[in-house]
Specification:
By secondary structure, the protein is an alpha/beta fold. It has helices at 61-68, 91-101, 117-127, 132-145, 161-173, 191-206, 218-221, 244-258; strands at residues 4-7, 17-30, 33-46, 50-54, 76-81, 84-85, 102-105, 179-183, 210-214, 226-231, 234-241. It has one domain (4-258): P-loop containing nucleotide triphosphate hydrolases (Rossmann fold), CATH 3.40.50. It has 8 helices and 11 strands. The strands form 2 sheets. It has a 7-stranded mixed sheet.
Length: 259
């Protein structure tokens, strides 16, 4: 069980809004049929906030995350990032925005198999405009923090699942994004690897990183500041998790159980 406070639906009053979605709708059409995957979603994520999105399979969780990151186009509604309306941007403008301000983690890692670990991590920084020296320095810092410096010259397929997800996290943070979008980041990992990745995500958040994470696991969602529950493409609830001082022991217990 996740201990939740009264439904909030917003970041704390003193937290500036980083991401806002208003009336978001996504309709898929095929063979004359229309399916609403996301139905009128309104959410806000504050700077430095950790928000989890939960819901049953087919509830629209991943679709919503892809819309918010510009990987898919909304049918209706508005998306605002850092005070700028972004749902109307062209594909090229979205790409530039993602390179500079958004990091992605996926369940199946999505690392480039033809590149080394080092190159996978450096690429986003280079695309965001960093010099090769700056990208290399950022990569060195991230790999050291995540404990995988020794794997820098390895091909991703030679790494374990947990190591690949560490590389994916380093890659997602390489451009120092304001927002990290994580889609089931522990869904393809064994218990020990999942524990390690969750510890890293928690540490990243404690350093000030805003995270919006999709998960089907209530215990994983319990690490967040807020939990948004989706059902049939709609927000069924949006509530804050109990304050960190009261849940610190529970987090520790959870990490031990995962091991």
């Amino acid at each position: 069980m996740i201990d939740l406070l009264a439904s909030g639906g917003r970041p704390p009053d003193d937290t500036p809004v980083l991401l806002r979605a208003k009336g978001l709708v996504k309709v898929y059409r095929s063979g004359g049929l229309s399916v609403e995957a996301v139905r009128g979603v309104n959410i806000e994520v504050g700077i430095g906030e950790f928000v989890a999105i939960m819901g049953p399979s087919g509830s629209g969780k991943s679709t919503l995350l892809h819309l918010l990151g510009g990987l898919e186009r909304a049918t209706y509604g508005e998306i605002w990032l850092r005070g700028q309306r972004v749902d109307r941007l062209s594909e090229s403008a979205w790409a530039v925005l993602r390179r500079r301000h958004v990091g992605f983690m996926f369940q199946f890692f999505n690392l480039l198999s033809t590149m080394t670990v080092a190159d996978n991590v450096e690429l986003p920084a280079l695309l965001a405009g960093a010099t090769p020296r700056q990208a290399r320095r950022r990569r060195e810092v991230l790999l050291a923090e995540l404990g995988i410096t020794a794997k820098a010259n390895a091909a991703p397929y030679r790494l374990s699942g947990g190591e690949q997800q560490r590389v994916a996290l380093a890659r997602a943070l390489a451009n120092e994004p304001g927002l990290l979008l994580a889609d089931e980041p522990t869904g393809n990992l064994d218990s020990a690897s999942a524990r390690d990745v969750l510890r890293l995500l928690r540490r990243t958040h404690e350093a000030g990183q805003a995270i919006l994470m999709v998960t089907h696991d209530a215990k994983v969602a319990g690490l967040a500041d807020r939990v948004i529950s989706l059902f049939d493409g709609m927000v069924a609830d949006d509530a804050r998790v109990i304050p960190a001082p009261r849940r610190s022991a529970a987090v520790g217990d959870f990490l031990e159980l995962r091991g």
